[in-house]
Structure of NADH dehydrogenase (ubiquinone) complex I, assembly factor 6:
Amino acid sequence: MALAVRLCETLKQVDFMSVSGASHLTRIYRTEGRRSHATEGKRSHITEGKRSHTTDNIRSPVNSSQYCLDLVRRSDYENFMATLLLPQQARATAIAVRAFNVEVAQIQDLTSEILMAKMRLQFWRETLDDIYNDKAPKQPVAMALQKAVQAQKLSKRWLRSLIDSREDHLGKKQFPTLEAVEDYGEKSNSVLYYLVLQGLGVENVHADHAASHLGKAEGLVRLVRGVPHHATRKNVFLPRDVMIKHGVSQENIIRGNQDQKVKDVIFDTASLAHQHLEHARSFIQDVPKEARVALLPAAAVSDYLTALQNTHFDVFHSSLQIILQKAWKHWLGSTKHLLYGLHRREGFVDPDH
């Protein structure tokens, strides 16, 4: 299938790119000339508690760019694939930003002691100060981020938000309200899109609005996607107010209860995610074409909501993961097909090798 047609199909559900825009993006990558023989990689999701690949596990990096690329590929594979479709300079910036996000996001999983977690977050807070004083320590992520900051004048406030939002959530086992989940999504997800847009050199209020809503939708979806995994660890993060509204206890979630009242909690949470996705769509016609590729992860959000709806919002349904795997393979295959035209460049490697 033609690349332009396939990319349009990938984004059709969220209308994140016109036919002409897809054709333009396809031509850019098709003409750059390298064919990759990638196979599907094992991926882990930052917010689903699968951050087993820490920076200590990535040995002998070629350089800071390679180090960050490996880190994001291992820990945030969906966003890693979408990031590879960005133009070269914006891609390097996005990889550095997402590597920084992995570093701070995984801290809570690396230690059960809140004090130790705060100390590690403080290290990154001080490192961020050093980066903006052109004194980054010889740590690969810090070095790559300093290059990105110098090249694109990235907002320190948004990078700082990635740290502060994680610190505010340390030790918390459950969100009190849906609004709290939205707020966390804005501070830990939306800011990533703001930074990627900065890397693209885009300053557009419509793009910012779309990014804000997409980040909140992504945060809500990640919360729901993580329910089965966290239940096995006897953790429940679904908003307390919605669970009380439907008479659902933490024990119901931990046991994988499939009663209608549990489905109603999932429905309310997923519905809010859908609303934010629709709001993001409402801005897309006014978003510059060069900025739309930054919003490509919306396709994964939309796919999950559709799959969840097909199981009648049963987050524990046995077929849900199978449906998602099929959708993922389809999306992944089309993305890798687009990458056939990419040259080998500094800091760029085959998606799965």
